[in-house]
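Long-time lurker, finally posting.

We've been working with PHD finger protein 1 (Oncorhynchus kisutch) and I want a structural starting point before designing mutants. I don't trust myself to interpret raw outputs, so I'm hoping someone here can both generate the structure tokens and explain anything notable. Sequence follows.
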Amino acid sequence: MGGVSEGDDVLARWSDGLLYLGNVKRVDGVKQCCLVRFEDNSEFWVLRKDIHSFSVGVEEVCCVCDAPPLKEPLINCLKCRHGYHPECHTPSIEPEADSNSWICRQCVFAVATKRGGAIKRGRFARLMQIMKLRLPYQLSSLDWDPQHLTNQQQCYCYCAGPGEWNLKMLQCGSCGQWFHEACTQCLTKPLLYGDRFYEFQCSVCANGPETIQRLPMSWVDLAHLVLYHLSLCCKRKYFDFDHEIMSFANENWDSLLLGSLSDTPRQDRCHNLLNALNSNKDRFVSGKEIKKKKCLFGLQVRAPPPLTSDSSPLITDPPGHLMQYSITLLLGQIAFTQPGGVLGHSSVEKQMIVPQSANQMGWHIAAECCGGHAG
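Top reply, 14 upvotes:
Generated this for you. Predicted structure of PHD finger protein 1:
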């Protein structure tokens, strides 16, 4: 894309698939990254590929290849005003596209993506579905680790942004790529951290809308998933069984999509979860084993629950802290509003207690878990 200079206002895409407003403080041309200061004055180095600059007026060079118009004039996005050669945009711009109303991929994703899953209705939802039929990069060019969890290019999803497989991402069972929760349109409920109990196929592989199916879970899987999710949200290892573990499970029972476990009467859930925690010493540690209260439980190793024949590495360090605030930015006639905060390269929400209508996250945690205010 076009050049970025110190002092430029930009949008930076982070590992949750969302865009955040910031200002460029330094540019490293060798490493192809920029030091960006965000609205809370935090600063992070961001790869150049994940930075999207504003355009002052109609551009006279293509923002992808930096070349001037060829035989035909550039097509300029109605919202951001960036110019494109028809063949440089993904997907290619059709000859019959109306240059007065055409909207680029970046602006479509900026409007459509949100926490809990992208929008499913309206013009931008339809445009997003069309954009998602092709990836803006060659999947075969990515260099993956042996477990196919991370790649050296930090290129994931339909948006080509950074990501972390254990932080609300779905892996396509066909191509193996990971996709942000915020960029998918198939979810009925928001993801928990570390929840991979889904059979998912991306729009590219499905050649149409994504497909998704919930995989069966055991009581051990549920206990592990809840503890992992709470440990990332609250940045603690041990949790009280009645007031935190059981409380979270009961309050979010329908959203957990537990299949055959869903019909378990409320009075039986406690026994089954407690038995799972006490009977699987390879996964869980009880407070009484470390001279703490026996009602406390934690994970032996902070790692997501494994799937069958899973070879995922163990994650021993918690992700960084998410700083909560909201930004609203205006491009043309469209307001892009993303509740949340500026993310570090590894980051999670500190607390998840705001109603779904306010932040689209949908999960409820007792206030004492995170030390926050249950508003």
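Before you design anything, note these points.
Residues 313-362, 366-375 have pLDDT under 50 and may be disordered.
Helices lie at 105-112, 123-131, 203-206, 219-234, 241-251, 266-279, 356-359, 367-370.
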